[in-house]
Amino acid sequence: MEKIGIVTEEGADLPKDIIEKYQIAVAPIKMDWPDIENLPGQNTFQKMREAEKRGIKSFGKTSQPSPKDFLEVFKKQLEKFDKVICITLTSKLSGTYNSAIQARNFLNQEEQKKIFIVDSLSCSAGKSLLILRAIDLIKEDKEIEEIAKELEKFGANKIHFFAIIENPKWAEASGRISSFLANWIRKMAKIGVRPLIRLKKGVVVSSGIITGAKDIPAALFRRFVAETKKLIKEGKKIRVVITHGDDLKGAQRLKEMIEKGVENVEVAFLNLIDNVLGVLTGPNAMLCAWCEK
């Protein structure tokens, strides 16, 4: 039996090869959007574009994994591992953390002692970085109590997350961003300014503007360079994850700009934004998360 296993949910945006390599158990997140189910498209973002063309006014809804969903993956991992660390979506935007807590309470007392649950205070690319950090600590043969404490500090203080969305209507309709913030994004876009949003202690907030950038990848790269300048000067290594709303070409350009323009940076992977966040960000959104490695 291996020592420590990992549990998460679909909001982490991990590539399949990482999930399989490290035997990560993933609890499902359900999407309810009947109006687009039968539309053409290989992913949710392509279906969203088609829905806009057809004038469909509805918006998608997602539901967090139930305690039962988490209970199933906890039991699955306890068959393979001595102990389990579960890393969830930010509790400020999702009830996923509470579902995991409830699921643990259904286990017997001995099993409960083997499950450690961490609120990532992030999502998508940022949450992926926390899971990659967990993998590093497991490889270092750290005890699970030490890993859990380290991840809580790391998620709250060390992960930086920036995003640019092309159209704020999806997030506004869900109530995840205020009408004030949505209208600010629209006004800035009209004058050719790229507004940035970020997660701060698990909550979505505005993070200034980027002027003079020709597109979203260029704007994110500019902010990344400004934010990492001090660390790069100190010779620190940086890990990056990029996720996108069906704009692989743009994500690849951002990756190339970062790798060519900044030293000591590893772009761990690019991946599609999951449905739980995708129904809020919409097509062509791009997220860039980074941390000191």
Task: Give descriptors for this structure.
single chain, about 290 residues, alpha/beta, Rossmann fold, Hypothetical Protein Tm841, Chain: A,domain 3, six-stranded mixed beta sheet, four-stranded parallel beta sheet, 12 helices, about 25% strand, globular
Commentary on this structure:
- The chain has 293 residues and is α/β, with parallel strands linked by helices.
- The chain is 44% helix and 25% strand.
- It has helices at 16-21, 44-53, 67-78, 96-105, 109-112, 124-139, 144-157, 169-174, 179-190, 216-233, 248-261, 275-281, and strands at 2-9, 25-27, 30-32, 61-63, 81-88, 115-119, 160-164, 194-200, 203-210, 238-244, 265-272, 286-292.
- It has a 6-stranded mixed beta sheet with strand order 9-8-7-12-10-11, sandwiched between helices. The chain has a 4-stranded parallel beta sheet with strand order 2-1-5-6, with helices on both faces. A two-stranded antiparallel sheet has the order 3-4.
- Helix 3 (67-78) crosses helix 4 (96-105) and helix 6 (124-139) runs antiparallel to helix 7.
- It has 2 domains: 2-29 and 64-156, Dihydroxyacetone kinase, domain 1 (Rossmann fold), CATH 3.40.50.10440; 160-292, Hypothetical Protein Tm841, Chain: A,domain 3 (2-Layer Sandwich), CATH 3.30.1180.
- The chain is built from 12 helices and 12 strands.
- Helix 1 (16-21) links the parallel strand 1 and strand 2 (25-27).
